Queue: 3 jobs
Job 1
Amino acid sequence: MTTANLTRTEKGYQIYGGTPLFGSIQALGAKNSVTKCLVATLLTDEICYLENVPDIQEVEITIEMLESIGSIVRWDREQHLIEIQTKEILSTTIANRFSAANRIPILLLGALLGRTDKAVHIPSVGGCQIGSRPVNYHLQALKSLGAEIETIQNGDTIIYIAKAPKGLVGSSIYLDYPSLGASENALLAASWADGISTIYNISIEPEFIDLIHFVQKMGVVVTFLNERTIQVQKGERRSTRHRLISDRAYAASFAMLAYATKGEIFVEGARQDHLGNFLSVLQQIGAPFFVEENGIRFKYERPLEGSCHVETGPYPCFLTDMQQPLVTLLTQCKGISTVHETVYEQRFGYTKTLIEMGAHIQVSTNCSGLTPCRFHEKGFHHFAKVSGSVPLVGKDILIPDLRAGFAYVIAALIAEEKSTLKLETGIWGPIEPVAPFRG
């Protein structure tokens, strides 16, 4: 079996493409599940165990954040196991150094409001620069349960101060958009509320369902009324052990890497029932996959056909985090394909670099698709037309965010010449695999 040439130097990652990639990779716990379950351990003062934990910087940052308020953590990286307990809350103020670390600080509002009668101070949220990511859905949900929230501007940082002097009270929460983060915050806060809370229009992403399963094991009573409506009661808390679901965006990214390099990759832990519309897109472009007992095999067999239309959206629609590697793959498919981004308004910025590498991509403000779009006639460049198949050339690339970074890795492995990839200062999360690639 063969692998592409990748070398890490002081200048970044040097990649010599043009070689099919073969091998296997393990998809460990989902990034968007492990961090949220870590926060959810604050719902009890008992010890909790998380299994299948990936060794990534996002987990390190979240653990550091929780330790700063009183959590005691033991992380066995080799066994992919975290043991965590928060017997008491030592601080209700999250330091400003976490203000742009990731999207986790805002979730601490819901998790902490029921464990303390003190005001909770949270710095403004961060993460990849792919759109405005407003927190209004989060704040509205918490206010529905009786939380009082104040917003203060402190230089470049926004501080959210929340308290519930009369305690949280069960209520009806209506989410205007099935936001994953807002659904998580509403669930965590409702887990403390007296009485019954009903949350409407929730996210049904696999990562949110995983969080529901975790808090249920802990003792929180969660009842589904229909696909997007749940009732929540606080219940009696206990110690629990939970195995995280595998990372579907990670699995899909390596799948597209296999097809783009005309190779074959087996992704251990990949689950057909979590990939939503991704597998149907593969079928449309003629990219065969084989579901096996403990994962999925993605194998290039013939030139790929484009001429497909893809729209991102809430699960089970095409995951927005899979969009960048997909567009890169579509540059190697025959015909003209279109991609309509309906989740984040600024997620096509990475295409400028792909175009410089030789890709034929046109980004516009069009709002063409079947899915109702919040960005209609608002001037956002959220629609892409991709023409293929075209050769790509190597380039020195500065990685702006995690998902764009993997798209550039794919592009560099397609290109015949050398490419050098370097991370921008302050980027969170490594671009290297969370598990070793076996080729």
Job 2
Amino acid sequence: MVRVKYRLQGRRTMEAADTAEENPELLYDVPISGTVYGAALNYRGAYDALAPEMHERPYSAPPKAPVLFIKPVNTHIGHRVFIPLPEGIRSVTIGASLGIVIGRTAMRVHAKEALDYVDGYTIVNDVSIPHESVYRPAYKEKARDGFCPIGPFVVDRSEVADPNDLDIRVYINDVMRQENNTSNLVRSVEQLIMDVTEFMTLHEGDVLLAGSPEMMPQAGSGDVVKIDIEGIGRLTNEVRDENEISGGEGR
């Protein structure tokens, strides 16, 4: 089995995506090197669904800053690597997200200059065990081994005309289960970068997730998950019982 690490620049992304699908012997490395930061409730539908609860205790008001979480390095896997389904869990939630790859140190960045700090874009699957609460860190549900597929590659920012107008589709066993567009972000890509770097520094290689749309589908053992993002490509992974996976990898 051949392993590759992909960085795409200066060619049409869907041609590369088709090549990735047509070469089943390739196992892709994770194409990023930094920390992955997720932003919760950054799609209008997901935000609106929880809006009434935001005025209840313990917070009694909507969040004023991005609601962030981390997908640590143990969660990172590449294109076509198996997603482990934990023992005793029937399905996992699929969180399709645009991954914003940072190209240089970003601190207190203004929205008008935000895209100058972006190296490129990738596809990220924010996998989690189904859970309801967003008011506490869901480490047990979101930070398990293999719960963050990334790839297949990083597309140079110059190849993406507008990151705030990209179609996102999720297919499970080739049936479309979710469709949305980044035009529905609460905070645009530029606004998100500005708001996050107001209080923390992002470094080269870090990835900021734009968020996952509402109505996230679930996948169980044996299901093949494909995430398409317009202009970026397709990320494909199969869910397998964790006891069936040797070393967390496989095809």
Job 3
Amino acid sequence: MNTFILITNGYIQNPGQKKVRGNVLIHKNKIVDVTENVPSDVECIDAQGCLITPGLIDQHIHGGYDCDFNTANVDTIVKFLTQLPKHGITAICPTIMTDTLDKIRTQTENIIQAKAELPKNSAKIIGINLEGPFINAEYKGAHSKELVLIPTVQNYHHIESDEIKIIIIAPELDKNLELVNYLKNKGVIISVGHSAAENLHGLKHVTHIFNAMAPLHHRNPGIIREALINDDVYVEVIADHNHLHPDIIKLILRTKPDSKVIFISDCLAKTPKTITKGDAAINEQGNLIGSLIFLDSVIKKNLGMVEFKDLLLYCSLNPAQNLGLKHAGRVEKGMNADIVLWDEATYTVKSAFVNGNCMC
């Protein structure tokens, strides 16, 4: 089909910028123009009262609803991805946590197969985020201590896949940084997390800062210090107000360049065994093990403290740039038609497009 779609009567809200009145013309999977004119012979979608934004990108999500990326089959993964656009999420990195090597391989294969079967209007899979097993058991969090492995190239070969986009490791356990150097050569994003390291060993990415690492201390500040003051380092933030106090989120935002903050959901599937405390998941010991909300709810929680345009930086443009997605994160000519319409009064998602296909 050669149908053109025009989103009209709304305000275009790009990350970090002022909103502007404009119409967005879509053809197939691309934004072909952003204009004040209304072309003839196009299908029009009325966005009156809406903000038109790029889709949200969650680079650290373990699942949601009944989908757990450590256990879900292909059909469950596909179904989950079709539900995410109603939360404004148009792309994710499914996150597999520490497990047996066999289970990690199986789930990697399931995610790859699901990616090949996704409907056109479902959220996209950018690549897998592998959280473990190469972590420090001292800061294992919800991970199984018995399944933690030493980060070595040999161990990684057992689960290696071209679909792995991000890998979270404890670099202090990587002898001579052999695995780090191997992964760098393959173009994998290496993130420091679940770690007792005293410095970042030259790495430029930190997983859910303040969580699963030594606390910031005035005489031994550790990796939190370097993550905050090194302007080249991306920091992931679980901004659900459970994993971090709102004032700590403010501290991060005052310290870091706007371009180096990435909000993540760290969302888990809610099962009959899940212990909940509000919108957080906890274990039997009462410790936080993850969140139960998606990025649209994270945005709502932080409105008032952070402007919507800046929240779009942290939830869309910044993860797009971190993941090397050159055609995502902005509503501009030539970009992918991954677009969300938000009710301007309530900041509720009203509709979303993935590759120009509407979830209406």
